[in-house]
Write a structure and sequence with these properties.
With 179 residues, the chain is α/β, with parallel strands linked by helices. The protein has a single domain, classed as 3-Layer(aba) Sandwich (Rossmann fold), CATH 3.40.50.2300. It is 39% helix and 17% strand. The chain is built from 7 helices and 7 strands; from the N terminus they run H-E-H-E-H-E-E-E-H-E-H-E-H-H. Strand 6, helix 5 and strand 7 form a beta-alpha-beta unit. The radius of gyration is 19 Å and the shape is globular. The two termini are 13 Å apart. 23% of the residues are buried.
Amino acid sequence: MLLTKAAEQQRSPRFSSRSPAHGSRSHRPVPVPPWGDCVQTILVLEDDTSIMALIRLVVGQNGYNILEATTARQAFERFEENDAQVDLLIADVTLPAGSGIHVALELQSLLPYLKIIIMSGYPSVMWEHQDSAELEELPSDSVITLQKPFLPATLLDSVHRFLGLPISVAPALQMKAAS
């Protein structure tokens, strides 16, 4: 199979730990980000099974790895089970025992590059005061809020804005465009 040069570059990692060139003075490896060149992982915290199924269908079938949690406790467990290798959190604000915004704040304190999509079926003026206050603590460039119900395309667009196209999809699109 022939690959374009751009597609091949897309497949190779952005960072690597190559050995220094012969005669080079530097022997320090280039840092490798925790996510390397693998598929991006999204942790979804949603207690409504129909919304979870929609996210699984729309986002999962577009090349992203999905970790599912229905409670705040499960979200922390999935995060730890996956060795904190999470690129995006999609969380519902209101949960039976906890808050998606509180989970987002805790996870981002552990993983500062974590991007977050907060979903709610309620307008923000109806949120608990603590949820609104904690949302203000998150950096505005790392959070998108979505009002339920939303279109699948709106969700996917929000995911792409933060993560770009999945690595497994981008080379195929580049090859298609080149032909």
